[in-house]
Amino acid sequence: EDECAALRQALRELGRTPQLWLSEVDDAAAFEIADALTPGHAIRLEMIRLGKQVRADGCAALSEALGKGGAPRLEALHLSGNPLSDDGGAAVAFDLLRGGGCPTLRDLQLNHCQIGDTGAVALGEALRDGAAVALQNLWLGGNAIGDAGAEAFAAALTPGRGQGAGLRRLGLYSNVIGDRGAVLLAQAVETRRQERVRTPGLPTVTIMLWGNQLQDPDTERTIAEVDAVGRAEGGDWVELNRSPHHFSPTAAAAAGQNYGDGYVYAPSSCASTPPYSSGTAGVPWTPPPSRYGMH
Question: Does the bond joining 68 to the residue before it have cis omega, within 30 degrees of 0?
Answer without folding.
Answer: no
